[in-house]
Amino acid sequence: MNSARSIEEVHIRGLGVSPGLAIGRVHFHSELMIEPTLETVGPEAADGEWARFQRAVILTKEQLQGLLDRAADDAGAAQAGIFEAHLLMAEDPALLAQVEKGIRDDHLRAEGAFYRVMERYMAAMRKFDDDYLRDRVTDLDDVMRRVLANLRGEERRGGADFAHILLARDLAPSETMEMDRASVLGFATEAGSPTSHTAILARSLGIPAVVGMHDIHSHVQLDDTVLLDGAAGVLIVNPTRETVATYESARRRRARVDSQLYALRDGEALTRDGQRIVVAANIEVAEEIGSVMGQGAEGVGLYRTEFLFLHQPHFPTEEEQAADYTAVARGAGEHGVIIRTLDIGGDKLPAGADGPAEGNPFLGWRGIRRSLQQPELFRTQLRAILRASAYGKVRVMYPLVSGVDEVRLANAALASCMEELAAEGVPFDPLMARGAMIEVPSAAVLADMLAEEVDFFSVGTNDLIQYSIAVDRVNERVADLYQPCHPAIVRLLRNVVEAAVPAGIWAGVCGEMAGDIVLTPLLVGLGFTELSVGASQIPRVKHAIRTLDAGECRDLVRRSLGLRNHMEILARSRQMARSYYAELLE
Ligand code: PEP
Ligand code: MG
Protein backbone atom coordinates (compact mmCIF):
# COMPACT_ATOMS: atom_id res chain seq x y z
CA MET A 1 0.00 0.00 0.00
CA ASN A 2 2.47 2.55 1.19
CA SER A 3 4.95 1.73 -1.56
CA ALA A 4 2.64 3.39 -4.08
CA ARG A 5 2.91 6.82 -2.43
CA SER A 6 5.57 8.85 -0.84
CA ILE A 7 5.32 8.53 2.90
CA GLU A 8 4.91 11.98 4.32
CA GLU A 9 4.23 13.09 7.83
CA VAL A 10 0.71 14.53 7.91
CA HIS A 11 -0.89 16.30 10.89
CA ILE A 12 -4.68 16.06 11.25
CA ARG A 13 -6.29 18.25 13.87
CA GLY A 14 -9.36 17.42 15.92
CA LEU A 15 -10.67 17.93 19.41
CA GLY A 16 -8.68 16.24 22.17
CA VAL A 17 -11.22 14.74 24.58
CA SER A 18 -9.10 12.30 26.57
CA PRO A 19 -5.41 13.06 27.19
CA GLY A 20 -2.50 10.70 26.62
CA LEU A 21 -0.05 9.76 23.91
CA ALA A 22 -0.35 6.61 21.78
CA ILE A 23 1.75 5.41 18.87
CA GLY A 24 0.88 2.41 16.74
CA ARG A 25 -0.49 0.98 13.53
CA VAL A 26 -3.94 2.07 12.51
CA HIS A 27 -6.94 -0.17 12.41
CA PHE A 28 -10.11 0.93 10.69
CA HIS A 29 -13.38 0.23 12.39
CA SER A 30 -15.54 -1.64 9.93
CA GLU A 31 -19.05 -0.26 9.84
CA LEU A 32 -20.20 -3.80 10.33
CA MET A 33 -23.86 -3.44 9.71
CA ILE A 34 -25.29 -4.68 6.44
CA GLU A 35 -28.65 -3.00 5.91
CA PRO A 36 -31.41 -5.60 6.08
CA THR A 37 -33.85 -5.73 3.16
CA LEU A 38 -37.59 -5.48 3.74
CA GLU A 39 -38.03 -9.05 2.52
CA THR A 40 -41.51 -10.56 3.09
CA VAL A 41 -42.35 -14.13 4.06
CA GLY A 42 -45.58 -16.09 4.19
CA PRO A 43 -48.02 -15.45 7.11
CA GLU A 44 -47.26 -18.93 8.47
CA ALA A 45 -43.69 -17.78 9.22
CA ALA A 46 -44.84 -14.96 11.53
CA ASP A 47 -44.76 -16.94 14.80
CA GLY A 48 -41.27 -18.25 14.01
CA GLU A 49 -39.95 -14.80 13.08
CA TRP A 50 -41.43 -13.25 16.22
CA ALA A 51 -39.91 -15.98 18.41
CA ARG A 52 -36.54 -15.53 16.68
CA PHE A 53 -36.72 -11.79 17.32
CA GLN A 54 -37.58 -12.30 21.00
CA ARG A 55 -34.61 -14.64 21.44
CA ALA A 56 -32.31 -12.01 19.91
CA VAL A 57 -33.70 -9.39 22.31
CA ILE A 58 -33.15 -11.68 25.32
CA LEU A 59 -29.57 -12.31 24.20
CA THR A 60 -29.04 -8.57 23.68
CA LYS A 61 -30.32 -7.84 27.16
CA GLU A 62 -27.97 -10.43 28.65
CA GLN A 63 -25.04 -8.88 26.82
CA LEU A 64 -26.01 -5.38 27.93
CA GLN A 65 -26.41 -6.53 31.53
CA GLY A 66 -22.88 -7.95 31.35
CA LEU A 67 -21.59 -4.62 30.03
CA LEU A 68 -23.51 -2.76 32.69
CA ASP A 69 -21.92 -4.84 35.47
CA ARG A 70 -18.49 -4.30 33.96
CA ALA A 71 -19.07 -0.57 33.58
CA ALA A 72 -20.14 -0.29 37.21
CA ASP A 73 -16.88 -2.01 38.29
CA ASP A 74 -14.49 -0.25 35.90
CA ALA A 75 -15.81 3.21 35.31
CA GLY A 76 -18.41 4.01 37.93
CA ALA A 77 -22.14 4.16 38.22
CA ALA A 78 -22.67 7.16 35.91
CA GLN A 79 -21.16 5.23 33.03
CA ALA A 80 -23.21 2.17 33.89
CA GLY A 81 -26.21 4.44 33.37
CA ILE A 82 -25.44 4.44 29.64
CA PHE A 83 -26.03 0.70 29.41
CA GLU A 84 -29.06 0.96 31.64
CA ALA A 85 -30.45 3.34 29.01
CA HIS A 86 -29.58 0.82 26.26
CA LEU A 87 -31.37 -1.89 28.21
CA LEU A 88 -34.45 0.32 28.48
CA MET A 89 -34.37 0.89 24.74
CA ALA A 90 -34.04 -2.86 24.08
CA GLU A 91 -37.12 -3.63 26.15
CA ASP A 92 -39.26 -0.62 25.22
CA PRO A 93 -42.78 -2.13 24.84
CA ALA A 94 -43.86 0.42 22.21
CA LEU A 95 -40.88 -0.46 20.06
CA LEU A 96 -41.41 -4.22 20.45
CA ALA A 97 -45.12 -3.86 19.59
CA GLN A 98 -44.25 -2.06 16.36
CA VAL A 99 -41.78 -4.78 15.40
CA GLU A 100 -44.42 -7.45 16.04
CA LYS A 101 -46.86 -5.51 13.89
CA GLY A 102 -44.31 -5.39 11.04
CA ILE A 103 -43.83 -9.15 11.30
CA ARG A 104 -47.52 -10.13 11.63
CA ASP A 105 -49.31 -7.48 9.54
CA ASP A 106 -46.70 -6.60 6.92
CA HIS A 107 -45.16 -10.10 6.78
CA LEU A 108 -41.64 -8.79 7.15
CA ARG A 109 -38.75 -10.92 8.33
CA ALA A 110 -37.63 -10.01 11.85
CA GLU A 111 -34.51 -8.13 10.64
CA GLY A 112 -36.49 -5.92 8.24
CA ALA A 113 -39.32 -5.24 10.70
CA PHE A 114 -36.91 -4.25 13.45
CA TYR A 115 -34.69 -2.17 11.17
CA ARG A 116 -37.67 -0.23 9.82
CA VAL A 117 -38.86 0.73 13.29
CA MET A 118 -35.39 1.75 14.48
CA GLU A 119 -34.74 3.85 11.38
CA ARG A 120 -38.00 5.74 12.00
CA TYR A 121 -37.01 6.47 15.61
CA MET A 122 -33.56 7.65 14.63
CA ALA A 123 -34.82 9.77 11.73
CA ALA A 124 -37.18 11.54 14.14
CA MET A 125 -34.35 12.24 16.61
CA ARG A 126 -31.90 13.45 13.96
CA LYS A 127 -34.31 16.26 13.11
CA PHE A 128 -33.63 17.97 16.43
CA ASP A 129 -30.84 20.51 16.44
CA ASP A 130 -29.66 19.30 19.80
CA ASP A 131 -26.33 17.70 20.72
CA TYR A 132 -27.89 15.59 23.42
CA LEU A 133 -30.50 14.05 21.14
CA ARG A 134 -27.92 13.48 18.42
CA ASP A 135 -25.82 11.56 20.93
CA ARG A 136 -28.89 9.45 21.75
CA VAL A 137 -29.14 8.47 18.06
CA THR A 138 -25.71 6.88 18.49
CA ASP A 139 -27.09 4.93 21.45
CA LEU A 140 -30.11 3.73 19.44
CA ASP A 141 -27.85 2.79 16.54
CA ASP A 142 -25.68 0.80 18.92
CA VAL A 143 -28.66 -1.16 20.25
CA MET A 144 -29.88 -1.75 16.68
CA ARG A 145 -26.55 -3.17 15.51
CA ARG A 146 -26.36 -5.46 18.50
CA VAL A 147 -29.87 -6.87 18.00
CA LEU A 148 -29.31 -7.34 14.26
CA ALA A 149 -26.01 -9.13 14.88
CA ASN A 150 -27.76 -11.40 17.39
CA LEU A 151 -30.58 -12.08 14.92
CA ARG A 152 -28.03 -13.16 12.38
CA GLY A 153 -26.16 -15.21 14.94
CA GLU A 154 -23.08 -13.10 14.25
CA GLU A 155 -20.35 -12.41 16.71
CA ARG A 156 -19.93 -8.75 17.45
CA ARG A 157 -16.91 -7.67 15.49
CA GLY A 158 -13.82 -8.31 17.51
CA GLY A 159 -11.05 -5.72 17.41
CA ALA A 160 -7.76 -6.34 15.68
CA ASP A 161 -5.50 -8.62 17.67
CA PHE A 162 -2.49 -6.32 17.37
CA ALA A 163 -1.86 -3.14 19.33
CA HIS A 164 -3.43 -0.37 17.30
CA ILE A 165 -4.97 3.09 17.12
CA LEU A 166 -8.60 2.68 16.17
CA LEU A 167 -9.96 5.05 13.53
CA ALA A 168 -13.70 5.30 13.08
CA ARG A 169 -16.40 7.51 11.74
CA ASP A 170 -18.07 7.25 15.13
CA LEU A 171 -17.96 4.88 18.07
CA ALA A 172 -20.85 3.72 20.18
CA PRO A 173 -20.51 3.88 23.97
CA SER A 174 -20.73 0.11 24.28
CA GLU A 175 -17.91 -0.33 21.78
CA THR A 176 -15.78 2.00 23.86
CA MET A 177 -16.59 0.04 26.99
CA GLU A 178 -15.87 -3.30 25.28
CA MET A 179 -12.52 -2.16 23.92
CA ASP A 180 -9.71 -4.53 24.63
CA ARG A 181 -7.30 -2.21 26.45
CA ALA A 182 -4.37 -4.45 25.54
CA SER A 183 -4.88 -3.83 21.84
CA VAL A 184 -6.64 -0.45 21.55
CA LEU A 185 -3.99 2.13 22.42
CA GLY A 186 -6.21 5.08 21.55
CA PHE A 187 -8.87 6.15 19.09
CA ALA A 188 -9.81 8.96 16.75
CA THR A 189 -13.25 9.56 15.29
CA GLU A 190 -14.65 11.85 12.64
CA ALA A 191 -17.86 12.51 14.57
CA GLY A 192 -18.26 13.19 18.26
CA SER A 193 -18.22 15.90 20.87
CA PRO A 194 -16.68 16.25 24.31
CA THR A 195 -20.11 15.67 25.91
CA SER A 196 -20.82 12.43 24.06
CA HIS A 197 -20.88 9.30 26.15
CA THR A 198 -18.01 7.93 24.14
CA ALA A 199 -15.77 10.85 25.13
CA ILE A 200 -16.86 10.58 28.76
CA LEU A 201 -16.06 6.87 28.82
CA ALA A 202 -12.69 7.39 27.16
CA ARG A 203 -11.73 9.83 29.91
CA SER A 204 -12.98 7.54 32.67
CA LEU A 205 -11.13 4.56 31.22
CA GLY A 206 -7.96 6.54 30.46
CA ILE A 207 -7.98 5.83 26.70
CA PRO A 208 -6.35 8.68 24.70
CA ALA A 209 -8.96 9.99 22.26
CA VAL A 210 -9.52 12.69 19.67
CA VAL A 211 -12.90 13.40 18.06
CA GLY A 212 -14.22 15.73 15.37
CA MET A 213 -11.32 14.84 13.08
CA HIS A 214 -12.56 15.53 9.58
CA ASP A 215 -11.67 13.39 6.67
CA ILE A 216 -9.51 10.82 8.41
CA HIS A 217 -9.99 8.38 5.59
CA SER A 218 -8.47 10.54 2.91
CA HIS A 219 -5.26 11.01 4.89
CA VAL A 220 -4.66 7.59 6.41
CA GLN A 221 -4.14 4.23 4.76
CA LEU A 222 -4.13 0.68 5.99
CA ASP A 223 -0.87 -0.18 7.77
CA ASP A 224 0.10 3.45 8.34
CA THR A 225 1.66 4.18 11.69
CA VAL A 226 0.16 7.11 13.56
CA LEU A 227 0.86 9.09 16.68
CA LEU A 228 -2.19 10.23 18.63
CA ASP A 229 -1.97 13.10 21.12
CA GLY A 230 -5.23 13.07 23.06
CA ALA A 231 -4.42 16.30 24.91
CA ALA A 232 -3.51 18.45 21.91
CA GLY A 233 -6.15 16.79 19.70
CA VAL A 234 -3.81 15.81 16.91
CA LEU A 235 -3.18 12.68 14.85
CA ILE A 236 0.20 12.54 13.12
CA VAL A 237 0.22 10.10 10.22
CA ASN A 238 3.56 8.44 9.43
CA PRO A 239 5.47 10.44 12.01
CA THR A 240 9.16 10.70 11.24
CA ARG A 241 11.63 9.13 13.61
CA GLU A 242 12.47 12.60 14.89
CA THR A 243 8.80 13.39 15.62
CA VAL A 244 8.35 10.13 17.50
CA ALA A 245 11.58 10.71 19.40
CA THR A 246 10.46 14.23 20.31
CA TYR A 247 7.08 13.02 21.59
CA GLU A 248 8.62 10.04 23.39
CA SER A 249 11.16 12.12 25.22
CA ALA A 250 8.50 14.70 26.08
CA ARG A 251 6.36 11.87 27.44
CA ARG A 252 9.27 10.48 29.49
CA ARG A 253 10.11 13.91 30.85
CA ARG A 254 6.51 14.56 31.76
CA ALA A 255 6.19 11.14 33.44
CA ARG A 256 9.35 11.81 35.47
CA VAL A 257 8.15 15.23 36.56
CA ASP A 258 4.67 13.84 37.28
CA SER A 259 6.00 11.15 39.56
CA GLN A 260 8.14 13.67 41.48
CA LEU A 261 5.17 16.01 41.85
CA TYR A 262 2.88 13.16 42.80
CA ALA A 263 5.09 12.41 45.78
CA LEU A 264 4.51 15.99 46.99
CA ARG A 265 0.81 16.19 46.17
CA ASP A 266 -0.46 16.18 49.75
CA GLY A 267 -0.10 19.13 52.05
CA GLU A 268 -0.94 22.76 51.63
CA ALA A 269 0.21 25.07 48.86
CA LEU A 270 1.95 28.09 50.38
CA THR A 271 3.96 30.57 48.37
CA ARG A 272 7.56 31.12 49.49
CA ASP A 273 6.45 34.18 51.43
CA GLY A 274 3.62 32.31 53.13
CA GLN A 275 0.50 33.12 51.07
CA ARG A 276 -1.89 30.18 51.36
CA ILE A 277 -3.75 29.15 48.18
CA VAL A 278 -6.32 26.36 48.29
CA VAL A 279 -6.00 24.01 45.31
CA ALA A 280 -9.28 22.20 44.74
CA ALA A 281 -10.64 20.01 41.95
CA ASN A 282 -13.32 20.41 39.30
CA ILE A 283 -15.44 17.29 38.85
CA GLU A 284 -18.30 16.34 36.52
CA VAL A 285 -19.47 13.06 38.05
CA ALA A 286 -19.52 11.89 41.66
CA GLU A 287 -17.35 8.87 40.88
CA GLU A 288 -14.37 11.14 40.29
CA ILE A 289 -14.13 12.09 43.95
CA GLY A 290 -11.77 9.24 44.92
CA SER A 291 -9.32 9.89 42.15
CA VAL A 292 -9.18 13.69 42.55
CA MET A 293 -8.60 13.39 46.29
CA GLY A 294 -5.83 10.90 45.47
CA GLN A 295 -4.19 13.61 43.35
CA GLY A 296 -3.97 15.85 46.41
CA ALA A 297 -7.09 17.97 45.85
CA GLU A 298 -8.21 20.09 48.79
CA GLY A 299 -11.83 19.18 48.23
CA VAL A 300 -13.95 20.05 45.22
CA GLY A 301 -14.11 23.68 44.10
CA LEU A 302 -16.64 23.06 41.35
CA TYR A 303 -19.02 20.14 41.01
CA ARG A 304 -20.77 20.62 37.64
CA THR A 305 -24.03 18.93 38.58
CA GLU A 306 -25.63 19.17 35.14
CA PHE A 307 -23.96 15.94 34.05
CA LEU A 308 -26.09 14.11 36.59
CA PHE A 309 -29.13 15.51 34.79
CA LEU A 310 -28.01 15.23 31.19
CA HIS A 311 -26.98 11.62 30.99
CA GLN A 312 -30.05 9.85 32.05
CA PRO A 313 -33.55 9.62 30.65
CA HIS A 314 -35.24 11.49 33.55
CA PHE A 315 -34.17 14.29 35.84
CA PRO A 316 -32.91 12.77 39.10
CA THR A 317 -35.24 12.87 42.07
CA GLU A 318 -34.41 14.66 45.33
CA GLU A 319 -33.52 11.28 46.81
CA GLU A 320 -31.14 10.43 43.98
CA GLN A 321 -29.51 13.85 44.06
CA ALA A 322 -29.14 13.78 47.84
CA ALA A 323 -27.40 10.37 47.60
CA ASP A 324 -25.06 11.63 44.88
CA TYR A 325 -24.15 14.88 46.67
CA THR A 326 -23.74 13.08 50.00
CA ALA A 327 -21.28 10.63 48.42
CA VAL A 328 -19.19 13.55 47.12
CA ALA A 329 -19.43 15.42 50.44
CA ARG A 330 -18.29 12.32 52.33
CA GLY A 331 -15.38 11.77 49.97
CA ALA A 332 -14.27 15.40 49.84
CA GLY A 333 -12.68 15.49 53.29
CA GLU A 334 -12.39 18.52 55.53
CA HIS A 335 -12.35 21.02 52.65
CA GLY A 336 -15.66 19.76 51.35
CA VAL A 337 -17.41 20.36 48.08
CA ILE A 338 -18.81 23.40 46.30
CA ILE A 339 -21.92 22.20 44.51
CA ARG A 340 -22.88 24.35 41.58
CA THR A 341 -26.61 24.40 40.90
CA LEU A 342 -27.75 23.32 37.47
CA ASP A 343 -26.10 24.99 34.53
CA ILE A 344 -28.10 23.43 31.73
CA GLY A 345 -29.03 25.54 28.73
CA GLY A 346 -26.76 26.97 26.08
CA ASP A 347 -25.25 23.96 24.37
CA LYS A 348 -26.27 21.53 27.12
CA LEU A 349 -29.90 20.52 26.91
CA PRO A 350 -31.59 17.52 28.47
CA ALA A 351 -33.60 14.94 26.57
CA GLY A 352 -37.11 16.06 25.86
CA ALA A 353 -36.16 19.74 26.13
CA ASP A 354 -39.29 21.67 25.39
CA GLY A 355 -39.87 25.08 23.89
CA PRO A 356 -38.54 26.57 20.68
CA ALA A 357 -34.85 26.51 19.85
CA GLU A 358 -33.13 29.71 20.99
CA GLY A 359 -31.48 32.10 18.54
CA ASN A 360 -28.58 32.85 20.89
CA PRO A 361 -28.58 29.98 23.36
CA PHE A 362 -25.47 31.13 25.24
CA LEU A 363 -27.23 34.42 25.92
CA GLY A 364 -30.47 32.69 26.69
CA TRP A 365 -32.13 30.41 29.15
CA ARG A 366 -29.29 28.88 31.11
CA GLY A 367 -27.76 28.73 34.59
CA ILE A 368 -29.45 30.50 37.47
CA ARG A 369 -31.99 32.27 35.21
CA ARG A 370 -33.38 28.89 34.21
CA SER A 371 -33.41 27.59 37.80
CA LEU A 372 -35.29 30.68 38.96
CA GLN A 373 -37.93 30.14 36.28
CA GLN A 374 -38.30 26.47 37.19
CA PRO A 375 -38.83 26.76 40.95
CA GLU A 376 -39.74 23.11 41.48
CA LEU A 377 -36.59 21.90 39.78
CA PHE A 378 -34.51 24.41 41.75
CA ARG A 379 -36.21 23.54 45.02
CA THR A 380 -35.57 19.83 44.52
CA GLN A 381 -31.89 20.48 43.91
CA LEU A 382 -31.48 22.90 46.82
CA ARG A 383 -33.18 20.48 49.20
CA ALA A 384 -30.88 17.69 48.04
CA ILE A 385 -27.80 19.89 48.49
CA LEU A 386 -28.94 20.89 51.97
CA ARG A 387 -29.57 17.28 52.93
CA ALA A 388 -26.02 16.40 51.86
CA SER A 389 -24.70 19.24 54.04
CA ALA A 390 -25.53 17.18 57.12
CA TYR A 391 -22.84 14.64 56.13
CA GLY A 392 -19.84 16.77 55.15
CA LYS A 393 -18.78 20.30 54.36
CA VAL A 394 -21.02 21.48 51.53
CA ARG A 395 -21.28 24.90 49.90
CA VAL A 396 -23.67 25.93 47.17
CA MET A 397 -22.82 28.13 44.19
CA TYR A 398 -25.04 29.82 41.61
CA PRO A 399 -23.95 29.85 37.94
CA LEU A 400 -24.32 32.64 35.39
CA VAL A 401 -25.27 35.33 37.87
CA SER A 402 -25.78 38.65 36.07
CA GLY A 403 -27.07 40.89 38.87
CA VAL A 404 -27.99 41.28 42.53
CA ASP A 405 -31.67 40.32 42.22
CA GLU A 406 -30.88 36.86 40.95
CA VAL A 407 -28.70 36.14 43.96
CA ARG A 408 -31.34 37.48 46.34
CA LEU A 409 -34.02 35.32 44.76
CA ALA A 410 -31.77 32.26 44.83
CA ASN A 411 -30.92 32.88 48.49
CA ALA A 412 -34.62 33.31 49.28
CA ALA A 413 -35.35 29.95 47.64
CA LEU A 414 -32.57 28.42 49.72
CA ALA A 415 -33.94 29.96 52.91
CA SER A 416 -37.39 28.57 52.21
CA CYS A 417 -35.95 25.09 51.60
CA MET A 418 -34.16 25.38 54.95
CA GLU A 419 -37.46 26.23 56.65
CA GLU A 420 -39.16 23.25 55.03
CA LEU A 421 -36.44 20.81 56.04
CA ALA A 422 -36.34 22.19 59.57
CA ALA A 423 -40.13 21.72 59.85
CA GLU A 424 -39.76 18.16 58.57
CA GLY A 425 -36.99 17.46 61.06
CA VAL A 426 -34.48 16.69 58.30
CA PRO A 427 -30.90 17.54 59.29
CA PHE A 428 -28.83 20.06 57.30
CA ASP A 429 -26.16 22.71 57.89
CA PRO A 430 -28.01 25.97 58.66
CA LEU A 431 -24.80 27.94 58.05
CA MET A 432 -24.10 26.43 54.64
CA ALA A 433 -22.04 28.95 52.64
CA ARG A 434 -23.41 30.41 49.40
CA GLY A 435 -21.34 31.64 46.51
CA ALA A 436 -21.81 33.35 43.17
CA MET A 437 -19.97 32.39 40.04
CA ILE A 438 -18.57 35.46 38.38
CA GLU A 439 -18.72 34.65 34.71
CA VAL A 440 -20.87 37.41 33.22
CA PRO A 441 -19.24 40.85 32.79
CA SER A 442 -22.12 42.61 34.58
CA ALA A 443 -21.44 40.46 37.65
CA ALA A 444 -17.73 41.31 37.56
CA VAL A 445 -18.59 45.02 37.37
CA LEU A 446 -21.09 44.74 40.24
CA ALA A 447 -18.85 42.52 42.34
CA ASP A 448 -18.89 44.95 45.28
CA MET A 449 -22.70 44.74 45.46
CA LEU A 450 -22.79 40.99 44.96
CA ALA A 451 -20.22 40.57 47.72
CA GLU A 452 -22.85 41.73 50.22
CA GLU A 453 -25.11 38.82 49.29
CA VAL A 454 -22.75 35.82 49.32
CA ASP A 455 -19.92 34.14 51.24
CA PHE A 456 -17.53 33.64 48.31
CA PHE A 457 -16.90 34.25 44.63
CA SER A 458 -15.63 31.73 42.11
CA VAL A 459 -14.71 33.17 38.74
CA GLY A 460 -15.77 31.11 35.72
CA THR A 461 -13.18 32.43 33.31
CA ASN A 462 -14.35 30.15 30.48
CA ASP A 463 -17.57 32.12 30.23
CA LEU A 464 -16.23 35.44 31.52
CA ILE A 465 -13.78 35.55 28.62
CA GLN A 466 -16.39 34.50 26.06
CA TYR A 467 -18.88 37.12 27.19
CA SER A 468 -16.42 39.97 27.81
CA ILE A 469 -14.56 39.74 24.52
CA ALA A 470 -17.69 38.59 22.65
CA VAL A 471 -15.90 35.49 21.44
CA ASP A 472 -17.70 32.16 21.26
CA ARG A 473 -15.63 29.77 23.34
CA VAL A 474 -16.26 26.87 20.92
CA ASN A 475 -15.88 28.65 17.58
CA GLU A 476 -12.52 27.89 15.97
CA ARG A 477 -12.74 30.88 13.65
CA VAL A 478 -12.42 33.36 16.47
CA ALA A 479 -10.20 31.25 18.70
CA ASP A 480 -7.31 33.69 18.37
CA LEU A 481 -9.47 36.32 20.10
CA TYR A 482 -10.10 34.08 23.11
CA GLN A 483 -7.43 35.61 25.34
CA PRO A 484 -7.29 35.03 29.12
CA CYS A 485 -4.66 37.78 29.39
CA HIS A 486 -6.70 40.39 27.53
CA PRO A 487 -6.23 43.64 29.50
CA ALA A 488 -10.01 43.88 30.00
CA ILE A 489 -10.08 40.41 31.57
CA VAL A 490 -7.23 41.28 33.90
CA ARG A 491 -9.08 44.42 34.97
CA LEU A 492 -12.30 42.50 35.58
CA LEU A 493 -10.44 39.89 37.62
CA ARG A 494 -8.84 42.61 39.69
CA ASN A 495 -12.23 44.18 40.23
CA VAL A 496 -13.60 40.90 41.60
CA VAL A 497 -10.80 40.49 44.15
CA GLU A 498 -10.93 44.16 45.12
CA ALA A 499 -14.63 43.78 45.87
CA ALA A 500 -14.19 40.52 47.78
CA VAL A 501 -11.39 41.59 50.15
CA PRO A 502 -13.12 44.54 51.93
CA ALA A 503 -16.33 42.51 52.16
CA GLY A 504 -14.40 39.79 54.01
CA ILE A 505 -15.18 37.03 51.51
CA TRP A 506 -12.77 34.91 49.49
CA ALA A 507 -12.45 34.79 45.71
CA GLY A 508 -11.26 31.84 43.65
CA VAL A 509 -11.08 30.82 40.02
CA CYS A 510 -12.61 27.63 38.64
CA GLY A 511 -12.39 28.22 34.86
CA GLU A 512 -9.68 26.53 32.80
CA MET A 513 -7.41 29.52 33.40
CA ALA A 514 -6.90 28.28 36.99
CA GLY A 515 -5.17 25.12 35.77
CA ASP A 516 -2.82 26.87 33.34
CA ILE A 517 0.45 27.12 35.26
CA VAL A 518 1.74 29.81 32.90
CA LEU A 519 -0.92 32.04 34.44
CA THR A 520 -0.46 31.06 38.10
CA PRO A 521 1.81 34.09 38.78
CA LEU A 522 -0.90 36.40 37.43
CA LEU A 523 -3.72 34.80 39.46
CA VAL A 524 -1.69 34.68 42.67
CA GLY A 525 -0.65 38.32 42.10
CA LEU A 526 -4.25 39.35 41.59
CA GLY A 527 -5.02 37.96 45.05
CA PHE A 528 -7.13 34.85 44.38
CA THR A 529 -6.85 32.46 47.30
CA GLU A 530 -8.42 29.38 45.73
CA LEU A 531 -7.81 27.70 42.37
CA SER A 532 -10.05 24.84 41.30
CA VAL A 533 -8.59 22.79 38.48
CA GLY A 534 -8.83 19.52 36.53
CA ALA A 535 -7.51 16.46 38.41
CA SER A 536 -4.29 16.03 36.43
CA GLN A 537 -3.25 19.65 37.06
CA ILE A 538 -3.53 19.55 40.86
CA PRO A 539 0.06 18.53 41.70
CA ARG A 540 1.44 20.94 39.05
CA VAL A 541 -0.52 23.92 40.30
CA LYS A 542 0.48 23.17 43.89
CA HIS A 543 4.12 22.97 42.91
CA ALA A 544 3.92 26.21 40.93
CA ILE A 545 2.44 28.02 43.93
CA ARG A 546 5.09 26.66 46.28
CA THR A 547 7.90 28.06 44.16
CA LEU A 548 6.38 31.53 43.68
CA ASP A 549 6.63 34.62 45.86
CA ALA A 550 3.26 36.33 46.25
CA GLY A 551 4.88 39.76 46.63
CA GLU A 552 6.70 39.35 43.32
CA CYS A 553 3.44 38.18 41.74
CA ARG A 554 1.70 41.34 42.98
CA ASP A 555 4.45 43.45 41.42
CA LEU A 556 3.96 41.55 38.19
CA VAL A 557 0.26 42.45 38.24
CA ARG A 558 1.00 46.09 39.04
CA ARG A 559 3.31 46.28 36.03
CA SER A 560 0.85 44.40 33.83
CA LEU A 561 -2.15 46.60 34.52
CA GLY A 562 -0.77 49.37 32.32
CA LEU A 563 -0.12 47.07 29.37
CA ARG A 564 -2.34 47.36 26.34
CA ASN A 565 -1.81 43.99 24.73
CA HIS A 566 -2.58 40.48 25.94
CA MET A 567 0.70 39.16 24.57
CA GLU A 568 2.75 41.47 26.75
CA ILE A 569 0.83 40.42 29.87
CA LEU A 570 1.10 36.76 28.97
CA ALA A 571 4.83 37.11 28.27
CA ARG A 572 5.47 38.57 31.73
CA SER A 573 3.54 35.86 33.50
CA ARG A 574 5.28 33.21 31.42
CA GLN A 575 8.66 34.70 32.15
CA MET A 576 8.07 34.46 35.88
CA ALA A 577 6.70 30.92 35.54
CA ARG A 578 9.72 29.94 33.51
CA SER A 579 12.14 31.38 35.99
CA TYR A 580 10.68 29.29 38.82
CA TYR A 581 9.39 26.07 37.28
CA ALA A 582 10.63 25.79 33.71
CA GLU A 583 10.63 21.99 34.02
CA LEU A 584 6.80 22.00 34.26
CA LEU A 585 6.28 24.08 31.16
CA GLU A 586 7.58 21.66 28.54
C1 PEP B 1 -16.57 28.71 33.48
O1 PEP B 1 -17.40 29.26 32.75
O2 PEP B 1 -15.38 29.08 33.58
C2 PEP B 1 -16.95 27.53 34.27
C3 PEP B 1 -16.14 27.02 35.17
O3 PEP B 1 -18.15 26.98 34.00
P1 PEP B 1 -18.42 26.04 32.71
O4 PEP B 1 -17.08 25.78 32.06
O5 PEP B 1 -19.05 24.83 33.25
O6 PEP B 1 -19.31 26.90 31.89
MG1 MG C 1 -19.48 28.77 32.99
Which ligands occur here? phosphoenolpyruvate, magnesium ion
What is the CATH superfamily classification of the largest domain?
Phosphoenolpyruvate-binding domains
Number of strands: 17
Strand content: 5-15%
Q: List segments where confidence is low: pLDDT < 50 over at least 5 consecutive residues.
A: 1-5, 154-158
Overall, the morphology is globular
* Level-2 CATH architecture of the largest domain: Alpha-Beta Barrel
Total domain count: 3
Compute the gyration radius: what is it? 26 Å
Helical residue percent band: 40-55%
What gap, in angstroms, lies between the N and C termini? 37 Å
Arithmetic mean pLDDT: 88
SSE class:
alpha/beta
The description of the largest β-sheet is: 8 strands, mixed
Mind telling me the CATH class of the largest domain?
Alpha Beta
Number of helical segments with 4 or more residues: 23
Strand order of the largest sheet: 1-8-7-3-4-5-6-2
The CATH topology of the largest domain comes to TIM Barrel
